[in-house]
Design brief:
The chain is an alpha+beta fold. The protein has 3 helices and 12 strands.
């Protein structure tokens, strides 16, 4: 579903994702994009309609290594449409720079409080696509959550895993073959 045609040997390349994203943004919705690796010149050739780009690759050994992901047993899980989460994050940005995400027996909630405004979102368990109830409530920076929500909005289902003052794990699929997981550290509330 993510690819019309795919042929590759196993390997590793380094790509500047900001530059790649800029190039891919030139494609219209539904338009095919061609990617071809030129191993001799260490370039990635990208075709978007009648446009062709060439991006220089980055030496994978020069890229910061993947951080060790901690094993977390997060007690609460909720699943909701990605577009609904994106809309809630955008609404929360209008009133604050941080947001509380939580799960209760009744469902999922989001709260944002600014100096004069506030926002509350409550989605009952009966309206969620899935739920594993548990104790969960953590404060998160909206800057990071907003960046994550851009790609989340395209996912039909997004699963949020959380606990009390624990990181938020966000899992979703784009197409049949692309699985994405984010881990966002909580902000610690000052007493």
């Amino acid at each position: 579903e993510a690819f019309d045609f795919f042929k590759a040997d196993q390997g590793e390349i380094g790509v500047d994702l900001v530059r790649l994203s800029d190039v891919l943004s030139m494609a219209d919705k539904g338009e095919n994009v061609q990617l071809e690796l030129d191993e001799e010149s260490h370039k990635l050739k990208i075709g978007v309609g009648s446009l062709s780009y060439t991006l220089s690759l980055i030496d994978p050994t020069a890229i910061r290594k993947e951080p060790r992901i901690p094993e977390l047993d997060l007690p609460a899980h909720v699943t909701l449409p990605g577009a609904e989460l994106r809309r809630a994050v955008k609404a929360a940005e209008k009133v604050s720079d941080h947001v509380v995400l939580g799960v209760s027996d009744e469902g999922f909630y989001m709260e944002a409080k600014g100096d004069i405004d506030s926002l509350k979102l409550k989605i009952p368990s009966t309206e969620l696509l899935g739920m594993k109830p548990g104790e969960a409530r953590s404060l998160f920076s909206l800057d990071y959550l907003e960046d994550m929500s851009k790609s989340i909005s395209k996912a039909p289902e997004v699963t949020l895993e959380m606990g009390i003052d624990y990181p938020l794990r966000v899992n979703f699929k784009l197409g049949q073959f692309v699985e994405i997981s984010y881990l966002l550290a909580p902000r610690i509330e000052q007493e």
